[in-house]
Every structure is written in C-alpha cells, then in structure tokens.
Write a structure and sequence with these properties.
This protein is an alpha/beta fold and 363 residues long. Helix content is 38%, strand content 17%. It is built from 14 helices and 10 strands. Strands 1, 2, 3, 4, 5, 6, 7, 8, 9 and 10 form a 10-stranded mixed beta sheet that branches. Helix 7 packs across helix 9. The relative contact order is 0.18. The N terminus is likely disordered.
Length: 363
C-alpha cells in the first residue's frame, strides 16, 4: 500500500481500509526522543494521509503487565504497541498479540523483495514486526571523569576511579549480564551462568557493590536528564537517547560503546481488537514499516532500520545535517565489542528473575 500525500476523508478511508473510519487510535511507545522520532516519521504522515488522530501513550515499559490486565478485564484500549523483541515473544506465547503474516500484512521492498526476506532473521516472533536495531549502553559526563574517561564497561563498578552516582534500569535485563561480565564470566558463558540460581546470586552480589550509588530508572528519558543535570556521573540508556543529549542538546556527555547490548524493538498488535480496530492497526503497520518510513525514522534518532532495503536510504539528520551512519550502534567502530542479547532466554526466565531482582532491590 503506497502512501499518498492527500488527506483522506472518513468515507475514503473506510473504502481504502476495509471499513475503517477516520477516528482515533492509541499507539504505545517509550516517550522522549524515541517517540518524537516516531511522531515525525510515522504518526504525522499517517494522520495526514488518513485523518486518523493518534493518541500517544508512553507505557511500553509496562506493556506486558498492562496487556495481561486488559485481557483479564476484557477491555483492550491499545491499538498498536511498541515493545522489545523478548516482550513480543512473551506476548505472542501468551496469546496476547496477534500473529502477523509479513508477506500479506507488510509492504514489500521497492524492488519487489518480500517483507519476510527483507526483514530476514529479525522476524524473531510470529507476532513481532521489527522496527529498529538499537543498543543499551552508557553515557558519562566528560567533565566529571577527569583525565581518565572510561573505555571499559566495568568502569560502572569502579567507584574508586569513578566516584559518584550511576543510573541503571530498574529491571534485571542487561544489568545482570554486565555484572557477570565484570565478575569474570566469559561472554559466551553469561547466559548459561545466569540460568542457574547461583549465577543469579553472583550477578546480584556484583550489583550489590554499587547498589548504594545507583539511581534506578524506568523511562528511557531518565538517564539523559540525570546526565544533563549532573546528578549522575554515568548511566545506562538507549543509544538514541544519548545521541539526542550529546548532538542535539550539546551537553558535556560522551558515549561508552563497550559491551553495548544489541536489541530489537518493534510493533505488536494486541489480540482481541474489534475487526474495525484491527484493520485500522494493520493499515497503520503497513504504512509505518515500509522501506522509506523506516529509513525516515533514522533522520531523527540514531537507530538502525530493521529492513535491509532501508539501510542504504539512511542519510543525514533532518535538523542537524550530520551523517547518521557513524552514530549507529552497528557502525564498525562502535561495534568492536558488543554483547548479543538472548531473546529466548529472557522470554523464558524474565518473570522469575524479575521477582528475584525486585525482592533484592527492596532489601
């Protein structure tokens, strides 16, 4: 389905999208610079095309719990939800997300390559429509680290050379892996160790060495704000959020790419929508995940588009005019020492390790 530049009337949209009327839809995402990139690349053009009003909800961090509750109550209020791949796998396994046939529900590449082939191995779940490749990594205040800027992930645990507060996400994912890496576990063995109760305790014990110096965050915008305010010396967040605070806001912040954790983010459509809402959600997904739209998002934030056909179209930042390629987590210089996130592990272990992690936090 090719996007048009004209504003469709409600009647025209109903004809084009199988009876969907120009009303409202709620799209759930992560807020901050990331939601802004979606607004510019997807939401505004889609609203202009269709007349549909998009309501933004920044609850993606709680998407699994909230969709479980909505399903239990029989009242699904979200239409399209942005989630990480591991959460998409969980939602699909639990029947809370609808299955997607990429070759009939997603647009082919401009050269006719099927969506399934264009997304390739990034289609990690039958319910997941990949959007971006991103990484979780660390930013640090350049004016607070003296003449010895950190180059190794284990600087996070080094309070002697890098005193001050750190910010870490209030969940076990990534924190547990980094803790084990910095406690001597080989990269290839991290998930085998983390699958054991002893390995989980080892990771929590390592995190315990800095626990009193941690500010725990829940929203991706938190660490950039904490860094901008000088409240932390270093902190984890998504690389695109750090790009914003460094390049757009010109704060005295730099990126620590070592052991950055590659991950996928994308869309799911909740199961249980009415036919009208489901068709509208599918119409949005068809539009927002075509080759050009995914490339367009990279004009606003430094995340790599998930389609192979989109990558050659990534150019300069829409406002800054700088080349975006060197700011991507996949850039060879940035990807010298990456850590590959294990989706299946966290889909299987998330609930149990979450409970243990939250109990540890409360101690």
């Amino acid at each position: 389905m090719k996007p048009t530049k004209t504003l469709l009337t409600a009647a025209a949209l109903a004809t084009a999208a199988g009876g969907v009327s120009a009303e409202e839809m709620t799209i759930v995402s992560w807020g901050g610079a990331y939601s802004k990139s979606q607004l510019k690349a997807y939401h505004e053009p889609y609203s202009e095309k269709t007349g549909v009003t998009i309501l933004n909800d920044d609850s993606s961090a709680e998407a699994v719990a909230k969709l479980r509750a909505m399903n239990e109550a029989g009242n699904i209020t979200w239409d399209v939800v942005d989630v990480v791949a591991a959460d998409a796998i969980r939602l699909c396994d639990e029947g809370l997300a609808m299955e997607i046939d990429p070759d009939t529900m997603l647009a082919p590449a401009p050269d006719g390559t099927s969506a399934a082939d264009d997304f390739g191995d990034l289609l990690v779940s039958d319910c997941f429509i990949p959007q971006i490749v991103y990484s979780t990594t660390f930013g640090y205040r350049t004016d607070l680290v003296g003449d010895n800027p950190p180059s190794d992930i284990c600087a996070v645990f080094d309070l002697e050379n890098y005193p001050g507060k750190r910010s870490l996400e209030k969940r076990p994912i990534n924190n547990m892996e980094w803790a084990l890496l910095c406690d001597g576990v080989a990269k290839d063995d991290v998930y085998d160790v983390l699958a054991t109760p002893e390995g989980q305790e080892q990771a929590l014990a390592k995190l315990g060495t800095i626990k009193d110096n941690v500010v725990w965050w829940s929203a991706g915008a938190d660490t950039p704000q904490l860094l901008a305010d000088g409240e932390v010396v270093m902190g984890s967040t998504y690389n695109g959020r750090l790009f914003s605070v460094i390049e757009e806001q010109k704060q005295p912040v730099a990126m620590l790419w070592d052991a950055q954790v590659f991950d996928l983010d994308g869309w799911i459509i909740p199961a249980g929508l009415s036919d009208e809402r489901k068709q509208r959600a599918l119409d949005y997904i068809m539009f927002a995940t075509d080759t050009q739209r995914l490339a367009d998002q990279a004009k606003y934030i430094s995340y790599g588009p998930a389609r192979a056909s989109s990558a050659p179209l990534v150019g300069q930042h829409a406002e800054l005019g700088i080349d975006m390629a060197p700011h991507m987590p996949t850039d060879p210089e940035n990807a010298k020492n990456t850590f590959l996130y294990n989706y299946e592990f966290w889909a299987d272990y998330r609930d149990d390790i979450d409970a243990k992690f939250q109990a540890w936090l409360a101690q």
